[in-house]
Amino acid sequence: MIHAVIFDLDGTLLNTLSDLAAAVNFALRTCGYPERTTDEVRRFIGNGVVKLMRRAAPKGLDEAAWQTCFAQFRAYYLAHLTDHTVPYDGILPLLESLQAQGVKTAVVSNKLHDGVVDLCADFFGARINAAFGVREESERKPAPVNVFRAMKTLGVSSEETLYAGDSEVDVQTANNAGLRCVGVTWGFRERKELEQAGAWMIIDRPEQLEAVVKLTG
């Protein structure tokens, strides 16, 4: 039986793309660099905000200049974290349904830990039982460190847990933690990328996850 689902955050529970793109382009513009399209930013997302800005910044930028650019991004993003961010359609009913069935939920994200906790509190409240972000490099997915912490907090085993995410990083994370990964197609990656990464199952709508939970032993 499945007793818990661990979710990725960006591209899985929350559509954060507009706010991330705005912060990226504010930093690039402020530092005098070319801006990026929303589609470029979408493809850069998945390994945390440090990697996001390293991919978005001009190639060959020296470390001091990049650090200045990243500081601009971080300050802007923390001040505008929820300007346009919203849960994907069907997510809140899904979380409420899982809760009603006694299925525990957690979030493991490559965002900074404090931001993850704040976003989960703002958008999900008691619908999410635990939330973990990055406080040091060893916690960054695809490392399974925070997935193990989430399972310990929820009091569940790997056999009782599913992992849901929208990217190849999520598939790798689940594999590294010994979990089955349900890939979701409404986020920042296409179905073929999830297939190539080896997702255990792929779904197109949040309500399909409820059926997977019910049918998975």
Question: Any overview of this molecule?
Answer:
This protein has 217 residues and is α/β, with parallel strands linked by helices. The protein has 2 domains: 4-15 and 85-215, 3-Layer(aba) Sandwich (Rossmann fold), CATH 3.40.50; 17-79, Putative phosphatase, domain 2 (DNA polymerase, domain 1, Orthogonal Bundle). 47% of the residues lie in helices and 16% in strands. Strand 7, helix 9 (191-197) and strand 8 form a beta-alpha-beta unit. The model has no long low-confidence stretch (mean pLDDT 95).
CATH class of the largest domain: Alpha Beta
| Total helical segments | 10
Unreliable segments of 5+ consecutive residues: none
First CA to last CA: what distance? 4 Å
Helix content: 40-55%
Q: How many separate domains make up the residues?
A: 2
**E-strand count:** 8
Shape: elongated
What's the CATH superfamily of the largest domain, by name?
HAD superfamily/HAD-like
> Widest sheet: strand order?
5-4-1-6-7-8
Rg of Cα set: 17 Å
Structural class computed from helices and strand pairing = alpha/beta
CATH topology of the largest domain: Rossmann fold
Order of helices and strands: EEHHHHEHEHEHEHEHEH
Q: What is the CATH architecture term of the largest domain?
A: 3-Layer(aba) Sandwich
Overall average residue pLDDT? 95
> Biggest β-sheet, characterized?
6 strands, parallel
User: How large a portion of the residues is in β-strands, by DSSP E?
Assistant: 15-25%
Summarize the structure.
The chain has 10 helices and 8 strands. By secondary structure, it is of the alpha/beta class.
